[in-house]
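To assess whether the prediction recovers the assembly geometry, we first specified each molecular entity separately, as shown.
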Amino acid sequence: MRDDWQAGGFGIYVHWPFCQSKCPYCDFNSHVAAAVDQRAWARAFVSELRRYARETPQRIVNSIFFGGGTPSLMDPALIETLIACIAEHWPLARDVEITLEANPTSIELGKFKDFRAAGVNRVSVGIQALNDNDLRRLGRLHSTAEALHAIEIARAVFLRSSFDLIYARQDQSLSAWEAELSQALALDLDHLSVYQLTIEPDTAFGRLHQAHRLPGLPSDDLAADMYQLTQDLCKSANLPAYEVSNHARPWAQARHNLLYWRSGDYIGIGPGAHGRLTVDDTRYSIDTDLSPDIWLEKATRGNAEHSRVPLDTADRVTEFVMMGLRLSEGLDLLRLKQMGGALIEEKVANLVDLGLVTRSESHLTVSAHGRMVLNSITRELLVD
Amino acid sequence: MTDLAHIRNFSIVAHIDHGKSTLADRLIQSTGTVAARDMEAQLLDTMDIERERGITIKANTVRIEYEARDGQQYVLNLIDTPGHVDFAYEVSRSMRAVEGSLLVVDSTQGVEAQTLANVYQALDADHEIVPVLNKIDLPASEPDRVAEQIEDVIGIDASDAIHVSAKTGVGIPEVLEAIVARLPAPSGERDAPLKAMLVDSWYDAYLGVVVLVRVIDGVLKKGDRIRMMNTNAVYPVDRIGVFRPQMDPVTELGPGEIGFLTASIKRVADTAVGDTITHEKHGCAEALPGFAPSQPVVFCGLFPVDSAEFEDLRDAIAKLSLNDASFSTEMETSAALGFGFRCGFLGLLHLEVIRDRLEREYGIDLITTAPSVIYQIHMRNGQVIEMHNPADMPDLTHVDHIEEPRIKATILVPDEFLGDVLRLCQDRRGLQIDLTYAGSRAMVVYDLPLNEVVFDFYDRLKSVTKGYASFDYQMAGYRADSLVKMQILVNDEPVDALSTMVHRDRAEVRGRAMVEKLKRLIPQHMFKIPIQAAIGGRIIARETLSALRKDVTAKCYGGDATRKRKLLDKQKKGKKKMRQFGKVEIPQSAFISALKMDD
Ligand SMILES: Nc1nc2c(ncn2[C@@H]2O[C@H](COP(=O)(O)OP(=O)(O)OP(=O)(O)O)[C@@H](O)[C@H]2O)c(=O)[nH]1
Ligand SMILES: C[S@@+](CC[C@H](N)C(=O)[O-])C[C@H]1O[C@@H](n2cnc3c(N)ncnc32)[C@H](O)[C@@H]1O
Ligand code: SF4
Ligand SMILES: [Mg+2]
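The predicted structure of the complete assembly is given in tokenized form:
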């Protein structure tokens, strides 16, 4: 058990909780702040990194991810400091993946080269749409032209890059989505995340929706058609799904996210960042304060953890299955067994009969068809 | 103790809501029985459910002292009775304990179905009847027209009917005088051996079983050893008293008096209403004729929504039966709903009342299965099986024929709605027995199958007549008909709790309605689900619930793991509210809605 996480790897997530403006659909821990004292944040991040380094010496870091919020608003010097700090305290894998999330506005694009110089080797850019009207409705600060420009710059500067799109937007037709996605695919990208717009409760969209003032959202059927279309188009563009919403050339899959879905260990640094850390024989779920101010203060005082809870076998199994089923590679049944988990064979057999999963000696894999109802499959397997 | 000539015993009877309880209030108040500051509307309706619904369910007795205009002091024992047909049994046994009835008729409404039923019962009990025309304070009141109607329809003299407003108190002195002047005093022998009627009994948390008695002959005293002639049980009397309306101890009860006794009787079931109470020694020779027992006519299954609450339900039912001997229970198991009880009730209102009390007073969420009646299954070998639950239907190859209970229904309805009422009765397989007119109102008498009535007849009647019809019924024996058991199959598995008995000709309509409803109630699954209604092996209605197309969370990264895991854990709890049928999960709420009888 003690080394199970190694099958998933070890990574570090750094959360930058600030954005230039808040998008109405977004429930990430992101805030609009007038002025940010990047030096103070640098000190806090470094202090947290050192604290974790003492706990996990000698672990090989497979991935570093600067997420947000909008981490492309960070000073490249700050990024450099943090990467250097990590390299100082842990051995880095030879092929370590260092990703930065970026927004496609001109200020940030100007910094891409500096980010590369600081050590970043992959960017993930939130394009969201290739349609000016929809970008406005999504509250984005950039235009389609800027988005296309961002793609160009990102690919010129970085060897690996990824782009996010959101579909199932207000008043979006199936054919409009088909045209838009085809346009993106024609760019011959290596990695694309395609998310169905989710109306999250604690957002501006959530509140509008609650008040029936968010018209034009697609029906469940249309959303299903859009998902299906996405799968088909991406597949024929040689960008198969390797996860529910993620498509990539086989060599271009995001290692950092794979680490989550494969239940690796990760340290979470920054407000609201979560971690999973196996220490001695126990795997802990760690979370931090959401408020940037509180987090900063606590981190500066020496420990920003809000809670650290040991996970019991049932919790670990639930997470392992829930995350692992999202992947096209399937759920590693040997690991599940070693973890002390088991699936109810009769339920598995039913799902196989329905063509929703396939099962081999070593893996349980959700079929392309099954992925559309993954939550039901997960519930079926985990809830008895 | 009061001499016979100064006692008057009477019941107040009327159609539902005509103002019996309000009239009782005024009688109690104007005689000073209850202090003004303790008065409240419908004082005698003390149960929560009575107060909430504004109806009387249980008959109540009160002793009133009244100084009449002749200057003499009288003791009046009044019994306020329920108006709803389900509780007609309360009325009939109350009448056995008294000599006269105040027949209250709402002067804005006129004679209604229970007015008739009550008059027939009162005549049957040899009662002197004093008609009281109530609600004359209302502008729509037409006392003269109603008096005429009473004479026409019922055939009793209404020339000296008393005009009353139980609300304002107008006419109350006249009512009190009429009670003294027009109702007979009871008769009885003080020196004869004790002979008393066990009118009613109920459980009191402090006193145990309380027995309502009417003394016919002899004297009942505290400390007496009494014998129940029917059950032959002997008890020493702990307390005796009267209701004013609170319990008030007295030293003895003599002939003509009504009061209560307690005698460390453990269970209400140990007392048989209608039984004759006498002394253990020197008892009376001959018992009173007794009452015909009340019979449950409508049955349904009650199951806890959360199967872990079965024991709580068992306790709650046991406690309720302590107080209400008129509902019957037996354990039932259902593949669909688990452990529960099959209960018999006097009617649908009674069913609702009991279910409400279980849910409210005992905090148990219940699933109620479709109401059913008792079918007599005549087997080929001559045996007759009484079937309370369609799930118990024997193998058809051994069944010769099936008989169902019929009722004689009396409906009073304004002329303009008569056509709709006749159509409704016809549609429910009714056979017309009689149709007469009283002014602009028609009185129709139909022979109807009870099973068509328990389904939703009353609601339909109300809606087609905009609430202007009144309805009363009596059981009227059994008759064979072409009855079949309709099963509901969900994903090809029969769901026992949804089985019902229907007439062959109506099966298809019912089946269609049921499968359409279920299609709306069962959540989509990962596969498509056929929902069918079947008779024997034959499918008579079918719907298909299409498979769920999309149910997937778009984003799930490191920061989401905890929340998603907790959501799954919560769904594990939610799953208790689901019942599994083969591969299909049906939420409890779907059963409740599917089986709801009113739509
Ligand atoms: N305006 C007016 N309303 C009255 C009068 N008498 C009774 N009511 C109202 O009629 C309704 C029914 O009165 P109840 O006394 O509960 O009738 P009931 O006959 O005891 O009803 P059940 O016990 O359910 O059969 C209540 O809303 C009373 O307030 C009256 O003389 N005038
Ligand atoms: C951490 S967010 C944002 C990264 C960056 N700040 C940006 O906005 O481009 C990562 C991605 O999640 C997606 N996303 C955020 N909220 C979403 C929602 N409610 N529904 C669907 N996708 C969403 C967007 O595609 C977004 O680019
Ligand atoms: S979507 Fe990106 S830019 Fe918009 S609020 Fe969320 S994190 Fe900030
Ligand atoms: Mg009443």
